[in-house]
Structure formats: structure tokens, C-alpha cells
Amino acid sequence: MRTLLAGLAGISVALAAAGVMAQDAAHAAPAAASPAAAAASGRPSVETTTIGDLIANDKTKAVLAKDYGPLLTYDGLDQIKGMTLRDISKFPQAQLDDAKLAVIQKDFDAIPAS
Question: Do 62 and 9 sit in the same domain of this protein?
Fold first, then answer.
């Protein structure tokens, strides 16, 4: 009987933990879906839009010129066109931190939808 009660208690704890993990995942999902939603809507994103696509668009290129001008004159620009701004932010020499990415994204978001 004691073994049965201990087993049931263990199962209860495991199920409770699984429920907490599911709730955590549910709360994290909207934030994770945000860049995907931006990409699906065609809106520019520091997370999902490639640098090549950003510089090919006059409006997003103007944002980059204002907020992150050195990118446009970078000697290795052709080699990073397939990367996103988030991708290159992982390299210290890019001098592109989360605060700067947020400023750029805010300016992308301010571009009127076409």
C-alpha cells in the first residue's frame, strides 16, 4: 500500500512538472512566433530578413543607412548578404547589440506597409 501511494505521488509530481513545462512553452510560443509572423507578412525583420533583401529595398536600406551606416560600406558585404542582422550581431566586430537591433527593428516597423 505504501509503495502504491509513493508511486501515485511520484506520478502526480511528474504530471504537475509536465503541466508547468507545457505552460512555459505556451507562454514562450508567441514571442518565438513573432519573427515568423513578420516574415510571413512580408515585413522587414532583424531576425528573419536577409541583409541582401534589406539593402535591395530602398526603404529598409534607408533605415540601415541611418541606424547602421557602416554595414553599407563594409568590404565583405557580398559575403554576408545571406545572413540576417541577428546573425551578424553574434560577431563582436559587427558592433551590433540587442539595443541597436531594437532601434533598427523599431524603424523597420515604422515603414508604412505597401
Answer: no
Q: Do 67 and 104 meet the contact criterion of CB atoms below 8 Å apart?
A: yes
Domain housing 3: 1-33
Q: From the CB of residue 104, how many other CB atoms can be counted at a distance below 10 Å?
A: 23
Sign, Cα dihedral of 20, 26, 29, 31: negative
Residue closest to 100 by CA, chosen among 114, 86, 87: 86
Taking only the tens place, the pLDDT of each residue in 50-102 is 999 999 999 999 999 999 999 999 999 999 999 999 999 999 999 999 999 99
Q: What is the pTM of this model?
A: 0.66
Domain identity same for 93 and 74: yes
Q: Are residues 54 and 108 in the same domain?
A: yes
